[in-house]
Amino acid sequence: MFLQDSRKQINNRTDRTIITHFILLGFSDHPNLQVLLFWSFLTIYVLTVAGNIIIVVLVVADLHLHTPMYFFLGNLSCLEICYTSTMVPRLLFGLLKGDRTISVHGCIMQYFFCGSLACTECYLLAVMSYDRYLAICRPLRYTYLMNGRICFWLLVISWMASLSNVSTITSLLFKLTFCGPNEIEHFFCDLSPMLKLSCSDIHLVELVHFIFASIDIVPPFLLTLISYMIIIINILQMKTKASRQKAFSTCSSHLIVVILFYGSLICVYLLPETETMKELHRIFSLFYTVFTPMLNPLIYSLRNREVKAAVYRTVRRHSSRVSLHQESKVWVYYTKMR
Prior knowledge:
Blueprint: H1 2-15, E1 21-24, H2 34-61, H3 68-85, H4 88-97, E2 101-103, H5 104-137, H6 142-145, H7 148-173, E3 183-184, H8 191-195, H9 203-236, H10 241-269, H11 275-302, H12 305-337
Parallel strand pairs: 1-3
Antiparallel strand pairs: 1-2
């Protein structure tokens, strides 16, 4: 009987049609809100890209921002631009045109880029929290422990760890067969919705994904949390009120981003997938894919006095160059008239 049942299951699987395209349902269950959702996501995307580009330009152009903190912040801004660009343009196209189809290989590659960038952000936020810990709690050894070479290797390790882990999962995904249905109940190609459409054995992929997700999320989150706890304790021990306010305002804003980003990731990837959590997955996914990249420039930089000063210096430098250029043109014209 067991052999007959297993043969029936194999025959049922082989009788299914192998699909080559998925349909990202996204927010199609709200047909009356498609135009509103399009303009909302377009506004968020433009603000995200513009804000992060401003940060990158300031970090590169202003010598006062050539410090480890802003080195990591500039890389975080580059990462956020790439991260949000891997999914939001496709979401906007689906909302505008109604075409939500994506090839299976294209969907897997979107997962690869989204997963790699999300994991890299986990490590990068942990590195930035460690940098703030050294700057506030170990100021005398800060320049020695966080020099240019160490900053470079911390960044390389963050990228290599995330790329290697997500590449392993992606290689397993390419070996799976998808037999349908072909509708993904999400606005981008996440792993769990894709696996539900596979007619292959997915236990190995699920196990590897859980292990790597635990490695990529939990240790960086704990390191970040411990760093900020020690920072807050040290801030409370500062003697002057001005020093306490300055340090606490910076760290509290950083902590808000960390809680939003890691909290939503943990809810989506590490908590058991119940029916209630299934309903909330899309909402939690919006936090770490759309809202956090938009908030990062505001919270990390544009509220910072050093960044505001850099903006003022850049604008003043540009205006002085424009005025000098105009004066030179007037002088050339005057000499020609003579």
